[in-house]
Design a protein that fits this description.
677 residues; mainly beta; Immunoglobulin-like; five-stranded mixed sheet; 49 strands; 50% strand
Amino acid sequence: MPGKMVVSFGASNILWIVFAASQAFKIETTPESKSLAQIGDSVSLTCSTTGSFPRDPEIHLSGPLEAGKPITVKCLVADVYPFDRLEIDLMKGDRLMKSQEFLEDADRKSLETKSLEVTFTPVIEDIGKVLVCRAKLHIDEMDSVPTEREAVKELQVYISPKNTVISVNPSTRLQEGGSVTMTCSSEGLPPPEIFWSKKLDNGNLQHLSGNATLTLIAMRMEDAGIYVCEGVNLIGKNRKEVELIVQEKPFTVEISPGPRIAAQIGDSVVLTCSVMGCESPSFSWRTQIDSPLSGKVRSEGTNSTLTLSPVSFENEHSYLCTVTCGHKKLEKEIQVELYSFPRDPEIEMGGVLVSESPITVSCKVSSVYPLDRLEIELLKGETVLENKEFLEDTDMKSLENKSLEATFIPTTEDTGKALVCQAKLHIDEMEFEPKQRQSTQMLYVNVAPRDTAILVSPSSVLEEGSSVNMTCLSHGLPAPKILWSRQLPNGELQPISENATLNLISTKMEDSGVYVCEGINQAGRSRKEVELIIQVTPKDIKLTAFPSESVKEGDTVIISCTCGNVPETWIILKKKAQTGDTVLKSIDGAYTIQKAQLKDAGVYECESKNKVGSQLRSLTLDVQGRENNKDYFSPELLMLYCASSLIIPAIGMIIYFARKANMKGSYSLVEAQKSKV
């Protein structure tokens, strides 16, 4: 019986499903109708259905896809049974967005509609991608192939209009009768359509155009107002407004040369007042302080001029031109500002430029105004020597002369450099030229004569009758002039020649002396001296023995050599012998033999010489021996001795003064000894 109960219950369930199911179901049972089963056996009953998964899923969007704004996608599967076997996958492109299985109460016997929802934010890159909703019904135990259905929807992403921009040409502020072109652009996807409207007084919009460009011509006052451009596409709109102002066309007044004019004192200035937009204007001129115009006014047509000539300090005002046209009146102002800067500076040197000698340079600027804006700068090459700004009383209205001085020490390197005086009038707010003037002077530095030298050929010591060339050299800038002179006994100079070379032919003794060469230029002078010595051959030589050339043994003998008036003469006394000459040490040409002996007898020679030549004189001294070789003393010998002691100094003095009278003739031993006697 239990077995019967089970079978009976299973059959009743199948019958209940048949009646409870919708007409969309078709149920087949195997075996058909009734089946008899023996108790204890196994019975297999099969129930299959069709039509429980009747159509493809549906994809529903909560609205159009707008880039950057979240949207909900619903994947809907209708009339599905059994839904506990249902699986829904939602994909965007190759990416699985969501997957869901519906594991609900399996005892509920009905057709169900199931759905899957996903919210995402579309981006521009989603354009062209597809949404795929895939539904699967897994009924494996019924030995059937899983049923799968899907729906595909291509994505179209939109961008609401934004960044709407209006460009206006020429301007939003227009003159009556003028024209204007306004161009509108807006960004969006799909590209927005452009619509132009004008906002009315009641706030409504008056449609004007569907083109991106709106052109208005022959503008009237009533054309002024707010114009609206809207960019519109499927998902939205964006607007931009612009206000056009239409002005009544006025007349205009212009004054030239401009609102300010810089006028140089003494020049002529013409101020012109011009009118545009008025056919018959009337003019009047005045100063801002209502002082006299001090000028001539001439008006003709739409122009009026005020001529100030010559401009003086009384013209430094603001002038106003008043124009009346109908009931309207306009006034324009021009400021006349004065200056004076008529000439370049003047450079003055304090003398000739001499190397290493300080000099003062001045730079003078004449008739300048305003003085407090003046700057003077003095430059040597690129070096600033002096700079000065004349910050004086600004209320003083007069033409002034100002100067700048600088002292410097020139060098030869300054030659060729430029001495520049720059005068600047710093009035930046005034337009005039030139605001800077300058003068330039090239420097030429003189060098006083120096390193003066004399070249003598063949020598400064000459033999009488020969010739000599004396050349003078002196360095300086400019090249020094040469002046030859001879120094007189009183120290004065006697000019001889202006040639660099002084030639003396067939010289004489009287040509001897000091010669002076001077190098002279405008920077100074330099001198050099040379002593010229003219020599002659020694002459009038005399050789004597005192008291006699024959003396007795024991006597005193003085051998003396004198020469005539020949300067720079050397005298050499010798005693000749077969074994060799003996040079005697003489004093002023005199050699004294005290107590003569027999050996003192012999030949004595005197040689007088100089660089030109020499002369010889000789004498023989005889010394006689005493009888019996005895020493004796006689009255006569005593008298001779006493006389000789007085005569010898006297002779020495006579020889000394004679030599002084003969131009100090000198003498010498042999050149090896170089001693004078």
